[in-house]
From TrEMBL:
One of its GO terms (molecular function) is heme binding. The chain crosses the membrane at residues 6-25. Keywords: Heme, Iron, Membrane, Metal-binding, Transmembrane, Transmembrane helix. It comes from the Bacteria. This is Cytochrome c1. Pfam families: Cytochrom_C (PF00034).
Length: 289
């Protein structure tokens, strides 16, 4: 009976630490932030219905091909990666999959006001303009022209589902390495450092160091988790962002399922061992008395 009382005391204080102290420590290390907003409400939403055919014409007339390639349509990037890095600070994305992986409201806002859409107004301003030129329209209804461009990008996007790795490379590889999978950023490191202020981290172990919950809000809006960071808002749809995180988990934490399963087995073993130890103790003391 005395041993059971000791066990009860140990359990009580363990519970106090686990449900009292640990949550407080966690709240200090990982402050609560608002959940990811995949509707991008702060950017607004256009009610205009885009016309992909007109969007193709507007896309060309606006000079988008001066920076961007569309490899799916046989339109290569106008510069090689080294030249693009030196010119813009970061290699402009190929837009073949943009309509599939990025949210349409984000794309519309990005075309109209890149600095606001990317949430980097603290980094770029009138004295230091963003390398992506703001689209002021071709003389017609600006919102309609933007909606047409977005519709065009959606019309040329892959119809078949993209695999997780492809989504990652299209969304993240311009800045980040994934060395565990032999993926290196397409932008020159020196140019990237000058553009960002620091070299963006290799993401091989980011899933282990930060966790999926943190990355979900961080990728959606980096400023929520790290105010003042130079990392822009990515603008991925919820599906595409989940694919990016799934890929990061596959590369950086491939043993997660095995580790979780082993944890349950270990808990079961310890419970069984405790029971057997207690029964053995009862038997020994019964013989003594």
């Amino acid at each position: 009976m005395r041993e059971l009382k000791i066990l009860a005391i140990v359990i009580f204080f363990t519970a106090v630490v686990y449900w009292g102290v640990e949550p407080f420590a966690h709240s200090q290390m990982h402050p609560h932030v608002a959940p990811a907003d995949f509707a991008f409400k702060d950017l607004g939403a256009s009610e205009k219905k885009g016309d992909a055919t007109k969007g193709a014409e507007t896309f060309l007339s606006a000079g988008c091909t001066g920076c961007h390639g569309i490899s799916a349509l046989g339109m290569p990037a106008p510069m090689d990666n080294a030249s693009a890095s030196a010119t813009f600070g970061v290699v402009p994305p190929d837009l073949s999959s943009a309509g599939a992986i990025y949210d349409k409201n984000f794309l519309a806002a990005l075309i109209k006001n890149p600095t606001k859409a990317l949430n980097v107004e603290h980094k770029f301003n009138e004295t230091r303009p963003h390398p992506m030129i703001q689209f002021f329209g071709l003389g017609g209804d600006l919102d309609q022209e933007v909606a047409d461009i977005v519709a065009y990008l959606q019309s040329i996007a892959p119809v078949a589902p993209m695999d997780d790795k492809k989504v990652f490379t299209d969304a993240c590889q311009r800045c980040h390495d994934m060395k565990y999978d032999k993926i290196m950023s397409t932008t020159d490191k020196d140019a990237l450092k000058a553009y960002m202020g620091t070299i963006p981290p290799d993401l091989s172990m980011m899933i282990r160091s930060k966790g999926a919950e943190y990355l979900t809000t961080f990728i959606n809006n980096p400023q929520k988790q790290l105010a003042g960071t130079s990392m822009p808002r990515v603008g991925l749809s919820e599906k595409a962002q989940n694919q990016v995180i799934a890929y990061m988990e596959k590369v950086g934490d491939s043993k997660k399922a095995e580790r979780d399963n082993l944890g349950y087995k270990l808990i079961g073993y310890m419970a069984l061992f405790t029971l057997l130890a207690y029964l053995w103790k009862v038997k020994i003391w019964r013989e003594v008395h």
